[in-house]
Amino acid sequence: xRAHFAVADVATxxxxxxxxxxxxxxxxxxxDLVASDPLAPTAVRExxxxxxxxxxxxxxxxxxxxxxxxxxxxxxxxxxxxxxLPLAIALPHxxxxxxxxxRRKCEFIDRAIASAGAANASVVCERAEAWPGGLRQFDLxxxxxxxxxxxxxxxxxxxxxxGGALVAWRGRxxxxxxxxxxxxxxxxxxxxxxxxxxxxxxxxxxRHLQLLVKVSETPxxxxxxxxIARKRPLGG
Length: 236
Hints:
The chain is α/β, with parallel strands linked by helices.
C-alpha cells in the first residue's frame, strides 16, 4: 500500500516539475532501489520519506533558471545519488557527473544509474579537490549536506566555467556563515547571491537554495590539497 501511494506521489512530483514523459517511472525506480537495497547509503528508507526528503528536496532546484538551463552538472558528495540523479532524470539534455569519494557509495550510485535508466549520468569516485579532469568543465555544481558553504565554494569554484553557478542546499540562514561565505567567494572568483527560500514539500521549514555565480577565473592556487579546505577554511 505504501508503494502504491508513493507511485501517486512521484507522479505528482513529475507533473509539478515538468519532467519528461518517462520521468515519473524513472524516479520511482530510483525510489524503489533506495527503499529495497540494504547497501543504500542513507538512513531514509521509507517510501514517503524518500519522496519528500530525497526526491522533492532534489527537484526543487528546478525552480532556478541556472539549474533548468544547465548542460554540464557536477554533483559533489553525491552519497546515495541526491540531488544528482533526480536532476539527471529531469534534465535528459544535461550531462550529470556524480562525484563521490567513498567506494561503496560509488558502487551504489552505479546501480542507481542503471535502475533509473539515467544514461546521461555517470559517477566519478574521487574527491573534488583531487579530480583534475573536472577543472573548468561545468556550468553548474550542486551540493547538498556536504560541508559549510565556504568549504563547498572552494570545492566547486575550480570546476566551474566563468558564468557558471554553484547551488548549495541550506537550512536556516546564518549571518556569520553568510559573511564568511562572501569573503571566501571573493578569493575564488565567485559572487554570492541572496539565499532563496523554497518549499520542496508541504510542511518543510527553513529550506533555502544558495546560488553563487562564477564571475572571474579562480586563482590557480585552487584547489588546495585534499583536506586543506576543511582544515583551514577560507573566509575566517
